[in-house]
Amino acid sequence: MLRPLALVMLVASHAAAQVRVTEDDRAITIETDKLEAVIPKNKPKQWMTGIEKQSFVDKATGARELGDGLMVIDWLMEAGSDDAWKDQLVDREDKGGLGRYLWHENETDPARKAHALNAHGSTRRKRAVEGPQLCPYMKPVKPTVIQGSDFVAVKTEYQYEFAAPSRKAGSKWTQLVVFPKGERFFLLMDKIDSVNDSEEMFLRNDTPGCVRHNKGDTFSEIYLSYLNGSKGVRIPAKEFFEPFPPDLKFNYRRDTHAAPEHFIRAYHIRDPKTGKDGPWLAGMTLEPSVVYEAWASQRLGNNIIVMIEEIHGRPVKAGESFSAAHLVGYFDSIEEMHKTYDKYKGHTKLEADAKGWKLAK
Q1: Which of 53, 113, 219, 289 is in Cβ range 3.0-4.6 Å of 46 for a Cys bridge?
Q2: Is cis: bond before 208, omega within 30 of 0?
Q3: Contact 296/316 with Cβ under 8 angstroms?
Q4: Which residues of the chain have pLDDT under 50?
Q5: Residue 133, helix vs strand vs coil
């Protein structure tokens, strides 16, 4: 059965399972025999969704996530322009409404124009259907912990608060994260229960997460399995020394690319002091066909590579749902990533109760 967490310090240890859950009023800390991770409830170090900033630790090597968190969630979106609504939208979501999605052609200020072009590219118009952008503006949450004999899971739910003109607010986002004993990875599902119709609705996330660096000091290369044929492409760090928009290079679109066999995005961690390579941190979307668009681009004005992925991008009716299942963790080689992918591929759903967890289609 599902057991709600209390708002007081809670420690639950299972010696046989080697899984430890510690909770206070700010966050839930997970520790298995292989990993450590934190899931925020309020007052996050960076973002409110997914795994907290640099809390994901590989016990075998001491490696940590390099960015601002893992599997971070943004808006519920669709293809199209919000130009016709501009007078009805607030400038920023933190001011109590759905903020406008910046587009370079609408900007007269040179700095804002450059930022919009770099962040969003120039070839595909998009707009928010519901908000807020969950990672910075989501209110405190009360996740549920699910404990089994050899795993621990955390389930978080949230309803979108704002909607574009003529749309409803209230679609529900569910994120379920499962940490199995004995593995250097976790499994995760993002699910949307929509209250709106859309011809091309998608959910935006970071898979696995962004990369913060200074001229490649923290990583040596990025691997994208879905470009350059079945072997994928290994991109040296130097390709990210200068900013570029998402549609200039390393961009994947379902309507312009052949469907890949595997959908893996990974970065090779490097010790900034010694320059020595460590493990890979990989994010896998277990059913490639759910990926609408994905990119790895260097952001203008700061040393960050954004690894954004958009899931679904298909017609949705009010009352319908869509989801994607992911696997995120540490690997010693690309070959190990593909072997793990083959074991879990083809799934879009994740379920868990005290008896166990399973992937489903």
Answers
A1: 53
A2: yes
A3: no
A4: 1-17
A5: coil
Tokens representing residue 277 in the block: 């390579």
What's at 140, amino acid-wise?
Answer: P
* Number of folded domains that form the chain: 1
- Sign of the CA dihedral 73, 75, 78, 82? negative
Q: What is the DSSP letter of 216?
A: T
- Taking alpha carbons only, the member of 1, 330, 9, 282 closest to residue 155 is 1
What gap in Å lies between CA 269 and CA 278, rounded to an integer?
5
Query: What residue has token string 């679109």?
Result: 253
- Two tokens, residue 298: 């260097």
87: left (phi over 0), alpha (psi -120 to 50) or beta: alpha
At 349 the three-state DSSP class reads: strand
In a domain, 98, yes or no: no
pLDDT number for residue 110: 84
Domain-located, residue 293: yes
CB-neighbour burial class of residue 282 (10 A; exposed 0-12, middle 13-18, buried 19+): buried
| Residue 261 belongs to some domain of the structure | yes
Q: Residue 160 contacts by C-beta under 8 Å, 6 or more apart in sequence?
A: 76, 130, 131, 132, 134, 169, 170, 171, 172, 173
Domain residue limits at 22 = 3-76+134-360
Distance CA 184, CA 35 (A): 6
Phi, psi of 95 (to 5 degrees): -100, 10
Write down the pLDDT at residue 84.
Answer: 86
Residue 245: both structure tokens together: 């928009």
Residue 16 CB: number of other CB atoms within 10 A?
Answer: 8
For residue 14, the model assigns a pLDDT of 37
Domain CATH number, residue 201: 2.70.98
User: What is the number of other CB atoms lying within 10 angstroms of the CB of residue 140?
Assistant: 12
Distance CA 291, CA 307 (A): 13
At 305 the three-state DSSP class reads strand
- DSSP conformation letters of 175-187: EEEEEETT-SEEE
